[in-house]
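In the laboratory, one determines a bound structure by crystallizing the protein with its ligand and collecting diffraction data. In a computational setting the workflow is compressed into a single prediction: the sequence and the ligand go in, and a structural description comes out. We illustrate the idea with magnesium ion.
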Amino acid sequence: MKYFKINIPEYVQLIINKLNENGYEAYVVGGCVRDSILQKIPMDWDITTSAEPCQVKHLFSQTYDTGIMHGTVTVLMDGKACEVTTFRVDGAYQKHRKPAQVSFTDNIIEDLKRRDFTMNAIAYHPDIGFVDPFNGNADIENKIIRCVGTAADRFEEDALRMLRAVRFACQLDFDIEPDTYNAICNKARLIAAVSKERIREELNKILLSDKPEKLIYLSETGLMPHIMEELEACFRTQQNHPYHAYSVGMHTIKAIESAEKDIVLRWAMLLHDIGKPLCRTTDDKGIDHFYGHGEKSVEIAYKILKRFKFDNKTISRIIRLIKWHDRPIEAHPRAVRKAVVTVGEDIFLDLLKVKEADIKAQNASFMNERMKRLAQIREIYFDIKESGQCLSIKDLAVNGRDLILLGIPEGERIGMVLHKLLDTVIENPKMNTKEILLDIAKKYV
Ligand code: ATP
Ligand code: MG
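The predicted complex, in structure-token form:
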């Protein structure tokens, strides 16, 4: 590790040089150093410096105040943005989240001390090398997430760090060091102090990570009941049924893993069976059933998505995917056309992806046959599209105007007739001609 050199982009190097030339210390720090050591490409580069914000602003022509209260100024260099934060010590924390006040220091070690994990508390300067007082390099090598200082105290200060630990475990495929892990277990309830939006952002990162299955840590540490108690219930709900091989919770995790990395799809998988714990019945042969779980899941998922303050468009898409995730579709053109019209064409292909992920997370012995059917359905759908068959009212060979000219009174009745005509055409695409449809419409005059 001694000889390891980080490849710092030119615009970042220019900022460091300028700070140094003017007598200030400056290092790259945090996520960009961690990711570079892991040989991942950093998303963004942060600089930490002994210069105070006003001095940073004085040195660079293009800056804006990002978090001036916390010492952060964004510097624009060659059109690229870089956050430059003054070495700081955090004051007392409020309500297990942010420090009310911070004070500046000229000591880099003091600054690194306030950071959450050893892997995130490494600074680097091209001439000096690593400043790594907590052995973050070794923890990165051993794939370990460890708090800087006493874990329990660090989580008391800022409860979000517990969720960040789990999120990094998912993103980096690291393990949480036992003391840090136990402290999460002991302090889990404090997560309730963190805003729903911040929790949502971490959950999004967990869901989109390479190892979403590690979200089981949320349940194992006791964080889950304070984040989403409805999901916690899924981990306690077994499914004794030939189609299933896992508890609802484990099935949910497998289903997330099997879905592509898309926020709507992964939230749909997270919540698709969330109603199951409330719908479980066991028949006299000992087989579990979950009648009506689709509707129950929709009801609970809606509450959860609202609670996490998702926008309405995202909520609507996720909810519709959950609502229809169990709708049977036969591999037959008419059935596929009907399904498209019922669920909405805008989500149809996503629905097939949801079904695929769901199947992959069930008993493997039924998988091949069910996957084959899904592939057929997808093919039939593409054939339907290619042949230009009608799938919505706007594709009908007649429109509202035509019906009015025919003598059908304006208003609701027009909509009703158009829907009837659509049903007809879905049954039999050949009927989609103006002549035939006007002939059918005549009886509604
Ligand atoms: P990424 O940006 O990839 O999610 P990151 O490590 O850069 O990961 P940021 O949230 O961008 O995370 O924070 C930058 C750095 O600030 C972290 O590496 C860490 O040193 C420090 N940090 C961020 N949040 C906290 C926190 N809640 N408590 C203590 N230090 C933190
Ligand atoms: Mg970052």
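The chain is about 50% helix and 10% strand. Keep in mind that any predicted model is a hypothesis to be tested, not a measurement.
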